[in-house]
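Dear Dr. L.,

I hope this message finds you well. Following up on our conversation about the binding site, I have prepared a predicted three-dimensional model of the protein together with 2M8. For your records, I am including the exact sequence and ligand specification that went into the calculation, followed by the structure tokens. Please feel free to forward this to your student if that is useful.
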Amino acid sequence: MGPRLTGDETALWVAAARVLDANWTGTATVPSPGLYPHQWSWDSAFVGMGLAHHRPDRARTEFLSLFRGQWATGLLPHIVFSSTEPRDAYFPGPELWRSVEQPAAPRGVLTSALAQPPLHALTALRMAQASDGADRAFLVPLYPCLVAQHAYLARDRDIGGSGLVSLCHPWESGLDDSPAWDPPLAAVDPRGRTYHGGDQDRYVALVAGMRAAGYRAEYLRDDHPFVVEDPLFNAVYLASTHALAELADLTGADPRPHREAAERIHGALLDRLWDESAGCFRPRDLRTGRLIPETTEAGFAPLLDPELPAEIVRALADLLLSARFAGAAGYPVPTCDVQSAAFDRGTYSRGPTWVNTNWLLWSGACAHDLGGVADLLFGSTVRLVRQSGFREFYDPFDGSGQGSHDFSWSAALLLDLLA
Ligand code: 2M8
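The resulting structure of the complex is given below.
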């Protein structure tokens, strides 16, 4: 048991720890039993935030397992497939990616070939801060892997040449079906394939194009149809770049390249994704050159930037608290502007409230001394799990639980909130 808690919080802590224990495979934590039977990259980073307080030994093993999937290019794939699950346990499985045919992919483990928001360096820093000096030996092998992960993103994925990473697939965003992806996805030719219908065809077509090109950076830069700079991905990338500088200090490496990279990402976020007239950050579609006119929760993620100018922090807090987001919901924060035509209270990233995005915004609010916003996010998240359990996502109006049960990051981040 970690911190001093009230009786009610103690019960929540114990319940959260039980979910993490049940979802532990021996080497990694699955996002949820049944639906997601493999290891997902940013899920593991969120899980590590919680395990750092509950089972730091497991947090370290979780990362070792994840980084076994890292490619020679530095890509940390968004799924590391379990070798003990049946091939059809999850769609799309290893056969879509065919990582085994790629010379840069690791041997002995099957993976996807996309990234996810790179929260890992920040998690590694939290793991180090939560442990005493003797336990920091894990950083010695991990630090170069984190550096390689960031180097891949800077080298192969800065498609606009600005310092920001581009997403090449909605699955890389972590908010897969966000309405923000509707316009760039509409431009993708699904090539008549029918897998699950609708956007699934386009998701699969995007991967097929990448795979046929050997997942090469030149193809992504010159020919791939979906190339988008996203504020959430890049805000997480920036927070982790700052964390890399601190990890460099801890391991005796040179922090200066990471500080310089952070400065560049900070500048590019403001120059390219801040929409002054709308008072929020928006994704930029590099194939049209334009900002995507949908306001989603991802636009608040740059609160994670410790150097965000005060007037922008204020504008974001005002919009977050307004009747378009938290002000309209009993259980904030809805993933999408509730006044948007695309808002849908019951569908994944098109409206529901999620623990992981609440946690990201809570972290950003704490860093900017937005006490009222931080308290609102903390209170909403704790009420959600107390009322409905550790679900994948929740109805933002009545707080009812939706999607998978016993969802790992909902449990892990509750531990971090309470710690
Ligand atoms: C969801 O994504 C997967 C594809 O990667 C799916 O829809 O099947 C998203 O919520 C993603 O952010 C998350 O990492 C993954 C596993 O929890 O599920």
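In brief: The two ends are 10 Å apart (CA to CA).

With kind regards,
A. P.
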